[in-house]
Amino acid sequence: MRVLHRDPRTGEIKLRVENADDLWHLSNLVQPGDLVRASTYRREESKTDKIRPEKAEKVRVTLTLRVEKTEFQAFTDRLRISGVIVDAPQDLGRHHTLNVSVDDVLSILKTWKRHELRRIDEAVAATQKPLVTFLSLDDEEALVAQLRQYGVQELATIHAPGHGKMFDTGDAETAYFEDILGKLKTSPLGEALVLVGPGFTRESFLAFLQGREPSLAARVHSQGTSQPGMRGIQEALRSGMGSKLFADSRVAHETQLVEKVLEAIATNRPCAYGRKEVDAAIEAGAVETLLVSDSVVRDLEIERMMHRAEEARGNVVLVSSHHEAGAKLEGLGGIAALLRFPIR
Length: 344
Fold this sequence. Notes:
Blueprint: E1 2-7, E2 12-16, H1 20-29, E3 35-43, E4 58-72, E5 79-87, E6 95-100, E7 105-109, H2 114-126, E8 132-137, E9 141-148, E10 151-159, H3 170-185, E11 192-197, H4 201-212, H5 214-217, E12 220-224, H6 229-239, H7 244-247, H8 250-267, E13 271-273, H9 275-283, E14 287-293, H10 300-311, E15 315-319, H11 324-331, E16 335-339
Parallel strand pairs: 8-11, 11-12, 14-15
Antiparallel strand pairs: 1-2, 2-7, 3-4, 3-7, 4-5, 5-6, 8-9, 9-10, 13-16, 14-16
């Protein structure tokens, strides 16, 4: 995300969408009642006296909507913002939907909250972070997936030509690895490839890659996991893998914080979860890190709790509901906290 203009007097911030992850950030920034200004297409007003006027062509106009709802679907690379037109050359008072995608420019006018401004800063900083791709495999199946700021996107699944004892023949293994390499070559890998999985298949594929594509092999970070597929990727996310490239990712950071909360619950260490417990912890000034699911962040009660936690020098982290750790946080009521001291 790139900030093109800020006007503290009017509350306008003009943004350019740099990548698909920015659309997720925008879906959390734009709320009902906000004003959004952007260029879009509308049909020209008819100027004919015909009883059945000809269908007017669409023309590009700049308009401002008062937002009623937003619709974001993970990994579709599109955000829909719907509302009523309040400023435009025509059609005032009518409904319109903006379809926002990568490279689009829009302005948001509102009274900004502290966590929203921080989210913009995070989105701008994240634009500079490297893109990471996963390859999780065993001797039966390989999964290619991409780490986004709000979850893990599956790109492709490759099945081995046999099951069980398929690696009794070198030809079968080579055919399987060739299929995987072909898929990797047609996928947007980014700066790094994280190779995960159990057993010897991961090591064998890395050796194959070093022989066939040494430049790609040089970008590989290899990590053993107890399971293949998406579960293996989630296991790697929980572990942090010790790689700065990977540990800097938003999903890995959120995952590790949620895991710390779950561990604290299991070991009876200072923590709180659910609105009632967390509210009491905030009141006591005990909250060190507050975790809030993006599915509840627009709730006015939750917003007040976030503000009070920050006032008491607590760190507030918004967690995406589009990955495994986010789903776990939702299971705790969408809000949890790591505490400086016990309150019970």
